[in-house]
C-alpha cells in the first residue's frame, strides 16, 4: 500500500453506498483501512455493500430527499461509530425530460437528492461533534452534463451544475478549517443508473455513446480510484477542483 493512500484510523460517510460508484468507493476506501458509514435509501443494497467491505462499517438507511431528518440520524451514528474525517456524496437520481415536460416538482426532488443534501451534510459535518478535526475532505459527484449540454437534460444538468458551483464556494468557506472540498464530473459509467437511463436513448445515440468516450465507457472503480486520490494525503493540496473522469468525453 502506498503510504499516502493509507486511510487507517479515518472514518468517512459515503452516500449512494448501496450501488454503483458509492459501493465501489466504500469497498475501495475500506480496503485502504478506512471505517465507513454506508448511507442509502436502499437497505438491502447497503447490506450487500457491507458484506463486500473488508473493514469496519456502519449501515445508515436514510432518504436524502428529506434533509430535515439528517441531523438526528447522523448524530446518533457519530455517537455510536465515532467522528468523521469526511464524506463522499455519490447518491443521485437521473432526470430525462424535454423542456416542454420539465416539472418544478421533479426538478425540486432531483435537486434535493443530487445537490442540496450535500449542503445539509456539509453543515452537519463541520460541527465539532461530527468532524474529527483532521484530514477533512469532502468529495461531491457531478456529471459531464454539469459541463456540456445534451437534449432533454435540463433538470439533471441544473442539479449537476449546482454541485460544481457549491464545490468552489464550500472549498473557500471551509479551507480555514483545513477541510478540502472537491468534485468529480464522470462521463458514462456502467452502473444501474446508466442501465436505466440508456433504455430511453434512441438506437442512434446508444451506438454513438462509445464513440463519445475515446477511452470507452467507464467503470464505477474508475471514479472510486479518483475519490481515493482526492480524500487521501495524495490530494492534500487540492481543493475546489472539478475533475473530469470521463474517458475523454469533454476533451472533444
Ligand atoms: N452512471 C453514470 O453514467 C453517471 C454519469 C455521471 C454522473 N453520475 C452520477 O454519479 C452518482 C452515482 O451514480 P451511479 O451511477 O453510481 O448510480 P446508482 O444508481 O448505481 O447509485 C445511486 C445510489 O443513490 C441512491 N439514492 C437515490 N435516491 C436516494 C435517496 N433519496 N436517498 C438516499 N439514497 C438515494 C440509490 O439507492 C443508489 O444506491 C450520481 O450522482 C449520478 O448522477 C452517474
Automatic annotation (TrEMBL):
Protein name according to UniProt: SDR family oxidoreductase
Domain of life: Bacteria
PANTHER family reported for this sequence: DIHYDROANTICAPSIN 7-DEHYDROGENASE
Record family assignment: Belongs to the short-chain dehydrogenases/reductases (SDR) family.
Molecular function GO labels: oxidoreductase activity
Keywords: Oxidoreductase
CDD domains assigned to the protein according to its UniProt record, in alphabetical order: SDR_c
Pfam families the record matches: adh_short_C2 (PF13561)
InterPro entries: NAD(P)-bd_dom_sf (IPR036291), SDR_DHRS6-like (IPR051122), SDR_fam (IPR002347)
Keyword ATP-binding: no
Amino acid at each position: 500500500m502506498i503510504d499516502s493512500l493509507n486511510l487507517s484510523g479515518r472514518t468517512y460517510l459515503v452516500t449512494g453506498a448501496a450501488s454503483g460508484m458509492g459501493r465501489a468507493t466504500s469497498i475501495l476506501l475500506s480496503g485502504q483501512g478506512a471505517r465507513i458509514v454506508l448511507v442509502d435509501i436502499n437497505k438491502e443494497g447497503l447490506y450487500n455493500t457491507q458484506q463486500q467491505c473488508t473493514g469496519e462499517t456502519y449501515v445508515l438507511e436514510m432518504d436524502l430527499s428529506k434533509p430535515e431528518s439528517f441531523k438526528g440520524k447522523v448524530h446518533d451514528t457519530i455517537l455510536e461509530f465515532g467522528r468523521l474525517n469526511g464524506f463522499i456524496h455519490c447518491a443521485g437520481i437521473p432526470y430525462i425530460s424535454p423542456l416542454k415536460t420539465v416539472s418544478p416538482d421533479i426538478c425540486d426532488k432531483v435537486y434535493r437528492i443530487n445537490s442540496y443534501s450535500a449542503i445539509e451534510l456539509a453543515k452537519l459535518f463541520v460541527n465539532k461533534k461530527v468532524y474529527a478535526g483532521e484530514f477533512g475532505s469532502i468529495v461531491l459527484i457531478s456529471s459531464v452534463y454539469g459541463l456540456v449540454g445534451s437534449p432533454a437534460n435540463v433538470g439533471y444538468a441544473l442539479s449537476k451544475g449546482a454541485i460544481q458551483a457549491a464545490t468552489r464556494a464550500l472549498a473557500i468557506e471551509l479551507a480555514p478549517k483545513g477541510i478540502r472540498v472537491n468534485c468529480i464530473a464522470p462521463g458514462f459509467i456502467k452502473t444501474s443508473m446508466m442501465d436505466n437511463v440508456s433504455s430511453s436513448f434512441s438506437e442512434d445515440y446508444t451506438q454513438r455513446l462509445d464513440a463519445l468516450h475515446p477511452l470507452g465507457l467507464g467503470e464505477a472503480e474508475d471514479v472510486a480510484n479518483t475519490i481515493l486520490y482526492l480524500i487521501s494525503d495524495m490530494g492534500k493540496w487540492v481543493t475546489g477542483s472539478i475533475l473530469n473522469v470521463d474517458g475523454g468525453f469533454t476533451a472533444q
